[in-house]
Amino acid sequence: MTEYNSEKEQADRLKEAIAEVRKVIVGQQEMIDSIFIGLLTGGHILIEGVPGLAKTLAISSVAQVTSMDFKRVQFTPDLLPTDIIGTMIFNSLSQAFSIKKGPVFTNILLADEINRAPAKVQSALLEAMAEKQVTIGDNSFALEDPFLVLATQNPIEQEGTYNLPEAQLDRFMFKVKVSYSTRSQEMEILNRMSSLNIPSIQPTLSAVDILAFRQKVNEVYLDDKLKNYIIDLVMATRNPKDYGLMDLVPFIAFGASPRATVNFPKAARAHAFFKQRNYVAVDDVKAVAYPILRHRLILSYEAQAEDMDADQVIDQIIKRVRVS
Hints:
alpha/beta
């Protein structure tokens, strides 16, 4: 693996890679940072936003800058599980079956508009996302390392879509919400795309670099007080009344799963690494709380009637649960 002199040098390499991506992506800092945090932790990312917000472009740009193998699958209602994982093909000449591997055998898999395919197709990714392997027939095959699923979905279309079940959502480390650009960002997009010299991305990292970065991220110090704070945040989603959050009790049907607890330290360490620190601060935990928790909270009908979303619930939990 590539050796670096310091965490700062590694963080500078990451900043250089992010700067390359930003040559073609205007704004959307949270989305770009989240994708890189996914790379640094091995966590899968679900990106939600209306069409035209550069979700697919951002993912393909990150694949370019990291020089990693990249496959895109456009999810549609007629897609089959074998279109993703592969299948066994009978050879009439040899009278034997051979394995044809699907696009899941890659470093970065873009599951574009993942909610446009039915449940049996979505579930074809479950083994790959959880165990980093795929079973075809009687054989199991390990996936590439690193392996990352980056999925997109459109929140406004209902016709011809299939909502991801909770078990599938839970396997994503982050759910990132992408919003419209500001006026100044729209002007920058207009100027860039109308120019004759559209910027191109130069590869600055490799899979070997990403694996080396992961090792350093795992060494970032996480104090016991912050570990307890993480537990408190997760437990507050399950038992809000134990944390003095009685007003949230009617709004939460089910709290966050243990996967939230598992992903918090990984994401917080990666966020601290971005900030060129070798320790996790409270702000790192708070910064990753929203994308970790928002898709793991199941709100009640009362919350829907009050037009309250998961982010509003998380906002109250973060404001009122303290580090002990």
